Amino acid sequence: MKWRGRSGSSNVRMSGGKAAGGGIFGIIIGLVLWLVFGVNPMTAFQTGQSMTAGSSSSTQPLDDEGRDAQFVSVVLKDTEAVWQEVFQELGSRYQEPTLVLFNGSVNSACGSATSATGPFYCPGDQQVYLDTSFFAEMRHNLGIAGDQQGSGDSENADKAGDFAQAYVIAHEVGHHVQTLLGTSQKVNEARRQLSEAQGNQLSVRQELQADCYAGVWANRNQQRVQFLEEGDIDEALQAASQIGDDRLAQASGRAVMPDNFTHGTSQQRVNWFTRGFQSGDIRNCDTFSGAI
Fold first, then answer.
1. Is position 188 within any domain?
2. Into how many domains does the chain fold?
3. What is the mean pLDDT of the segment spanning 94-118?
4. Which residue in 153, 177, 198, 240 has its CB near the most CB atoms, within 10 A?
5. What is the Cα–Cα distance from 30 to 24, expressed in whole angstroms?
6. Is residue 102 part of a domain?
7. Are 1 and 232 in contact (CB under 8 A)?
8. Which residues lie in coiled coils (predicted)?
9. In this predicted model, which residue has the larger pLDDT, 260 or 213?
């Protein structure tokens, strides 16, 4: 996946509130504004961080955390551009979410969460939450692009699993799109009137639609910036198949019980991502009508 050298979003934050990507350069700019130009210290440092947030460098090596923050920033920026375009076509305006990177645990409007929760979107504050361990999990534990990681090719190892990670981020942003379109609210209202099994089935349809939206994003972003490389779509499909409810149940030694599914089977997740990617049209992502 081609992502380096492109601008990033200013809507990525660390759980402490600092903009991701600012780092030492943001601090230096803040010091200059404060000591040389007499700007209020708090304003100076906030300005320094915002000026360097989302920036990327192709000349200086980054540790994993810095690299991952830049990657997230670029992917989020890509989702912003695509969904702004889609919402304009719908005669509406896209409201950008914030993506919060956290380490270990975090508090959100939906409650507290840990790294075990996995990436999630909270409609209460319209923010995507992503633990920094997510990247290592995708690279090493889910078997994403494992042949590249063991090849000894540093360039390929750096790219290994990039698009699979982008797919997961795009899926969570898909939930934000559902919130803006009113879908999430309708699902929550309907679930209150249903049994647990029926409510789970509705959740499955909601999750599969977010998968389809991730496919729509990939299609339209490819048209924008030609960011896909050979094998990227296979990465996303592999990731989708790895996190199906049936696959996760089998991996944990539990019985596969469809009434307990909340995200869909591996095949369903693959099918709906593919449908969105092939069409690039959210009108083809109606998972709430007919069979899934």
1. yes
2. 1
3. 93
4. 240
5. 10
6. yes
7. yes
8. 180-207
9. 213
Note the helical H segments in the chain. 23-35, 41-52, 64-89, 133-136, 146-149, 154-159, 162-181, 183-191, 196-225, 232-242, 245-251, 266-279
Percent of the chain clearing pLDDT 90 (strictly above): 59
Of 47-51, 62-66, 134-138, 215-219, the range with the highest mean pLDDT is 215-219
Strand partners, 113: 106
Spatial CB neighbours of 258, under 8 Å, sequence gap ≥ 6: none
Taking 70 as the threshold, does the pLDDT of residue 150 lie above it? Answer: no
Enclosing domain of residue 113:
63-284
Output the pLDDT for position 137: 77
Rounded CA-CA distance 148/212 in Å is 27
Based on the number of CB atoms within 10 Å of its own CB, is 17 exposed (0-12), middle (13-18) or buried (19 or more)? exposed
For residue 168, is it within any domain? yes
Distances (CA, A) of 260 to 25, 46, 64, 88, 175: 49, 46, 36, 38, 21
Output 136 or 145, whichever has higher pLDDT: 136
Question: What is the Cα–Cα distance from 228 to 221, expressed in whole angstroms?
Answer: 9
Q: Take residue 96 and report the two structure tokens written for it.
A: 């950008």
Helix (H) or strand (E) holding 14: strand 12-14
Q: Which two tokens stand for residue 31?
A: 């010091």
**56 in a structural domain:** no
pLDDT band at 117 (very low <50, low <70, confident <90, very high): confident
Mean pLDDT, to the nearest integer, of 67-87? 96
Residue-by-residue DSSP string for 225-281: H----TTHHHHHHHHHHHTSHHHHHHHTT----GGG-SS--HHHHHHHHHHHHHH--
Tell whether the model's pLDDT for residue 284 goes beyond 80: yes
Instruction: Report the C-alpha gap between 132 and 22 in whole angstroms.
Output: 17
In the three-class reduction of DSSP (H, G, I as helix; E, B as strand; rest coil), residue 178 is classed as helix
- Confidence (pTM): 0.80
CA distance 112 to 134: 17
